[in-house]
Write a structure and sequence with these properties.
Elements: H1 5-68, H2 76-79, E1 86-90, E2 96-98, H3 104-107, H4 109-116, E3 118-126, E4 129-139, E5 145-153, H5 155-228, H6 233-265, E6 273-276, H7 277-295, E7 298-304, E8 308-311, H8 313-329, E9 336-344, E10 347-354, H9 375-378, H10 387-397, E11 401-406, E12 412-418
Parallel strand pairs: 7-9
Antiparallel strand pairs: 1-2, 1-5, 3-4, 4-5, 6-8, 9-10, 10-12, 11-12
Helix pairs in contact: 1-5, 5-6, 6-10, 7-8, 8-10
Length: about 425
């Protein structure tokens, strides 16, 4: 069964998280292993040198005691024991002194140490023994030249390496498991906005196609019917009026879609100029008065304070007109729409209240979504359900808040609150 694209993307992201961390841990582990191995090797070499020094001191004590004592004395060399180290005392030509039998490859190191002062050798006897030897030349108090050698099996280093690798591998495995789990969570969170955007785009495209299909179908049907048979001029005029009305509706939807598309793409420049909100609202109210009168709705002006705003006056005018058109559209004949502009603690506020059908609580959180219309609560009406989406975008672009409060049968109140400007501007007309 094929994976969904986002599921496959999440799996790839998680795999990349794990592979990236695995690569980092491998490089880090390799570097640490090289460094620690070098440190262990240096410690082993230092312990071998220290062991040869102890053997040299024991040989010197042995010579002094034999010279001073008349009877049998304890051999200091025989009494010297260093854990995990094998000690050899030889003449410069490799002749064994202590012990009596010394391996040939160890004796072969003695002439090199006697000539150079010190020598090192390694020998791999079988898979379980990897030997490391250090030999040094020294002179006894009586003037005799000797060679002291210390031998160690590197198995102790290998045990340390194995313990280190096991500990690091366990920690790395645990880290990879945690990263795989955390990567899955992070990939889901990181792709969630993409998933929401894709879902939103699909819904948006479906809604746009649905809204555009109706006027296009009316235009096509009207034209086809008009062309089927000759008609009198009045019939053609009626058909053209239907086509004009639907073309106007279609143009309005396209304009709104273009506005939102430019807003999403950041292609709509926003002017930042001082103006007065009361002037813009008054102009919009006068323009909407004809629409209200044609429907039998009374549009009244309430308080109008001087309210300075900084932003794009044309966009704010569009915001107010969208709110006024919605208020008139969903207010039955004989109802009222009231408009106020206030100054509240330095903020400029525009309030539009209607006595219309209102909005049910379950629909209120969605009214700013594109193409959303609570048909059962507010009636189908005209338009495509984009006006409030555009109004919200304009408010957000100005740092303003747009809030709707409503209840079924009790009308709707729209409040736009602009932030204080800190500029007095000029007098409002």
């Amino acid at each position: 069964m094929a994976l969904q694209p986002l599921t496959a993307l999440r799996l790839r992201l998680t795999a990349w998280y794990v592979l990236t961390l695995g690569l980092i841990l491998s490089l880090l582990g390799g570097g640490l292993f090289v460094v620690i191995r070098g440190q262990f090797t240096r410690q082993l070499d230092a312990s071998l040198r220290e062991a040869t020094k102890e053997l040299e001191r024991a040989a010197a004590i042995r010579e002094r005691e034999r010279t001073a004592a008349k009877g049998a004395v304890v051999d200091a060399v025989d009494e010297l024991h260093i854990p995990d180290r094998t000690l050899y005392l030889m003449s410069p030509d490799g002749t064994p002194v202590k012990p009596a039998t010394i391996p040939g490859w160890v004796r072969d190191v003695a002439p090199r140490a006697a000539a150079a002062g010190s020598a090192d050798a390694r020998r791999h006897e079988h898979p379980e023994r990897n030997l490391r030897l250090h030999a040094e030349r020294f002179t006894l108090p009586g003037g005799q030249v000797m060679v002291a050698a210390a031998l160690a099996d590197q198995v102790e280093l290998e045990d340390q390496y194995a313990a280190l690798i096991a500990a690091f591998s366990g920690a790395a495995l645990a880290a990879l498991v945690l990263v795989a789990a955390g990567g899955g969570v992070l990939s889901r969170k990181s792709t969630a906005p993409v998933e929401r955007t894709i879902s939103y785009m699909r819904r948006f495209m479906a809604d746009a196609a649905h809204e555009l299909r109706a006027p296009v179908a009316v235009l096509r049907t009207s034209a086809e019917v008009a062309l089927q048979a000759p008609r009198d001029p009045a019939a053609y005029a009626d058909t053209l009026r239907v086509i004009e009305r639907e073309a106007e509706r279609l143009g309005g939807i396209v304009d709104d879609l273009l506005t939102l598309a430019r807003a999403d793409a950041g292609e709509r420049p926003l002017k930042r100029e001082p103006f007065f909100l009361d002037d813009v609202v008054l102009e919009s109210a006068e323009a909407a008065r004809a629409l209200a009168g044609a429907k039998g709705v009374e549009l009244t002006l309430g308080a109008f304070d001087e309210a300075p705003v900084e932003g794009d006056a044309d966009l704010v005018r569009q915001l107010v007109m969208n709110l006024l058109q919605n208020a008139v559209k969903f207010t039955p004949g004989g109802g009222t729409v009231r408009v106020d502009v206030l100054q509240d603690d330095g903020a400029s506020v525009a309030i539009i209240e209607d006595s219309g059908v209102g909005i049910a609580p379950e629909h209120l959180p969605h009214v700013f979504e594109r193409f959303y219309r609570a048909d059962a609560a507010r009636g189908r009406g005209d338009g495509a359900g984009l006006g409030l989406s555009i109004a919200r975008w304009i408010a957000d672009a100005h740092g303003a808040t747009l809030r709707l409060t409503s209840a079924p049968g009790a009308g709707t109140r729209a409040e736009v609150r602009f932030p204080r400007t800190g500029r007095s501007g000029v007098s409002s007309s």
